[in-house]
Write a structure and sequence with these properties.
By secondary structure, this protein is of the alpha/beta class. It has one domain: P-loop containing nucleotide triphosphate hydrolases (Rossmann fold, 3-Layer(aba) Sandwich). It is built from ten helices and seven strands. It has helices spanning 3-17, 34-42, 50-60, 75-89, 108-122, 139-146, 156-165, 182-187, 191-199, 216-225; strands at 65-68, 101-104, 130-133, 151-154, 176-179, 206-211, 230-233. Strand 3 (130-133), helix 6 and strand 4 (151-154) form a beta-alpha-beta unit. Helix 3 runs parallel beside helix 4 and helix 4 (75-89) packs across helix 5 (108-122). The longest helix has 15 residues, at 3-17. The structure holds adenosine-5'-diphosphate and magnesium ion (MG). Adenosine-5'-diphosphate binds next to helix 4. It comes from Zalaria obscura. This is ATP-dependent RNA helicase dbp4.
Amino acid sequence: RKRDDVDAEKLEEAVAELDPKVAVESFTDLPLSAPTKAGLKSVHFTTLTPIQAKAIPLALKGFDILGAAKTGSGKTLAFLIPVLENLYRAQCIGGDAGLGAMIISPTRELAIQIFDVLVKVGRKGHLFAAGLIIGGKSLQEERDALARMNIVVCTPGRILQHLSQTAMFNCDNLRMLVLDEADRILDMGFQRDVDAIVEYLPKERQTLLFSATQTKRVSDLARLSLQDPEYVSTADPA
Ligand code: ADP
Ligand code: MG
């Protein structure tokens, strides 16, 4: 058997044993793959931020999450680490695996920032094909790239265009949906696009939703795309 299979199995056991109620401080306290550990080391991250400490153990275990924490609190890695790890353990890698994770961002600029973090943390031995679908290239160019991706970082309008127009593009293997800055996705009027996107995705999937605020409309969105979510927040008591 391949070494990766053995690693993934061992990690699966360790994640099953992980108790999300036990506080973690350091990334070394978590059952993470060697490539993710190496990636975190290369960017000199050792201690989890509070939102990461609350969200990552639950997300590794497959729970849906509605996370709220203010800007600058480290939400990007709170979802990128579970995306990398959950796909790694599922061996959702390479051309045949298909699209395993979709990360939706309200703006192109934010999508690019997420992608940059993904590349930085993922480049130490992870073998995923990841890409951006944010417009700015021809649909055909994006379509060809999309066909090879395991992880896509995208904006709502553009990915919906592909889902509705590209017969070849299917999301049957999709395991994870992430909505970053869900509050801004709503503020910018993308609710209907997100509803339409979700219609194309498998019902059996993990959904992670992050925002800077916990507004009522965010919980409305949660009702549409999450199943019994764990609410994690580091908001100051009002
Ligand atoms: P948010 O999405 O909540 O606004 P980001 O994910 O953009 O926050 O992270 C804010 C900053 O904190 C970034 O510069 C990021 O590199 C840094 N950061 C994130 N997690 C950690 C960590 N565990 N240790 C040190 N720095 C971190
Ligand atoms: Mg952010």
